[in-house]
Amino acid sequence: MESERVIAYVGIGSNLGDRAGNLLYAVRGLIEASFLVTKLSPVYETEPVGIETDQNFLNMVAEIRSEAVTPSQMMARLLRIEYLLGRTDKSQKKPRTIDLDLLFFGTVHTDSPFLTVPHPRLHQRKFVLVPMNEIAPHFVHPILRKEVRTLLHDCEDVSSVVRWNPTGLKADAKA
């Protein structure tokens, strides 16, 4: 029996420590967890949303191709990566070294105490929609039946989401 290949999208965020390094380690963790990372969005600096902190996040989205794995198995691997990168407190309203969210798992919809896919609040969060729109603007949300670019256009979130520039120089500035 041939295994089915699934395209999934994972949100990656960090607002503690070496934020950019944490993103890099998370991508490496995805690869080491036997996921084929096929696309990475640019990195965005974002205001915290629903978190008790004033420390900005760095956020990005990864497109992953995987075979012979369920959404729950993928989430278990994501939780292990978080743990290995120092995230032991999974409460939602605290700063974190790394946060990995399973946004979409193909067109699968699942809702259990352990996992809800598609992510239940992604359509309300610019920090997810902006980077997702960079790599998959035409991906259709399997429940809302709207493309990511339409979800972004319709999103009422007014938080700041700016493409991250580690040098602090403007794009048109000369070195």
Can you walk through the features of this model?
With 175 residues, the protein is α+β, with helices and mostly antiparallel strands. It has a single domain, classed as 2-Layer Sandwich (Alpha-Beta Plaits). It has 4 helices and 8 strands, in the order βαβββαβββααβ. Strands 1, 2, 3, 4, 5 and 8 form a 6-stranded antiparallel β-sheet that branches. A two-stranded antiparallel sheet has the order 6-7. The longest helix is centred in the first third of the chain and has 14 residues, at 19-32.
Question: Summarize this, please?
Answer:
It is built from 4 helices and 8 strands. The chain has 175 residues and is of the alpha+beta class.
- H/I helix tally: 4
Tell me the distance between the termini: 56 Å
The major pleated sheet works out as:
6 strands, antiparallel
- Radius of gyration (Å): 16 Å
CATH class: Alpha Beta
Number of strands: 8
Q: SSE order, as H and E?
A: EHEEEHEEEHHE
- The CATH homologous superfamily is named 7,8-Dihydro-6-hydroxymethylpterin-pyrophosphokinase HPPK
Strand content: 15-25%
Taken from the alpha-carbon principal axes, the silhouette is globular
Helix content estimate: 25-40%
CATH-defined fold name: Alpha-Beta Plaits
What is the structural class?
alpha+beta
